[in-house]
Automatic annotation (TrEMBL):
Pfam family, one: Phage_T4_gp19
UniProt protein name: Phage tail protein
Provenance organism: Marivirga lumbricoides
């Protein structure tokens, strides 16, 4: 009997956690419904060489990161993240900007880390609430955008999670 071929399956992206280092008694901040902005881009500068009409030189520039966007339903309890945003945004730069590391972890079905992104020296740059509409029955959403210096990705139990998922399907 031939050995089973290893099949690769994508990992679902709906189970994750967010931690903000130094954001109060409990660094974990829960109940985020959506996270976006985990991206990196290498911008290029185009330089046209005199007398060369067949192409332009494309020179890489420093990395560019988009803002990290966190969305969650508003609850009637304050959190370390909310307090940090209030202090940073409402101060009008009268005080120094607190830089914090934000860690987002993609979790397996047993809550074991699969992928971890650490956003270095993050700070809030936008704080927004969803619109109010009496004709719709929707959750009131808070959106927080964070700027950061860079991020690091760490693959932790990727192979184990993929193997477990494959064994469940087979």
């Amino acid at each position: 009997m031939a050995e089973k071929e290893s099949v690769q399956f994508p990992v679902p992206g709906f189970r994750f956690s967010v931690r903000i280092a130094g954001a109060g008694n409990n660094d974990a901040d829960a109940s985020f419904q959506e996270i976006s902005g985990i991206s990196t881009e290498v911008p290029v500068e185009e330089i046209q060489e005199g007398g060369e009409n067949r192409f332009v030189h494309r020179v890489p520039q420093p990395l560019k990161y988009s803002n990290l966007v966190l969305k969650r339903g508003v609850v009637n309890e304050s959190s370390g993240l909310t307090e940090w945003c209030k202090r940073t945004i409402n101060s009008g730069f009268a005080t120094h900007v607190e830089l914090k590391n934000v860690v987002i972890t993609l979790l397996s079905d047993t809550n074991k880390p699969i992928l971890t992104w650490t956003f270095i020296n993050a700070y809030p740059v936008k704080w927004e609430y969803s619109g109010l509409d009496a004709s719709k029955n929707q959750i009131f959403i808070q959106t927080i955008e964070l700027s950061f210096q860079r991020f690091e990705e760490n693959i932790q139990n990727w192979r184990a999670a993929v193997q477990k998922l494959a064994s469940l399907i087979n």
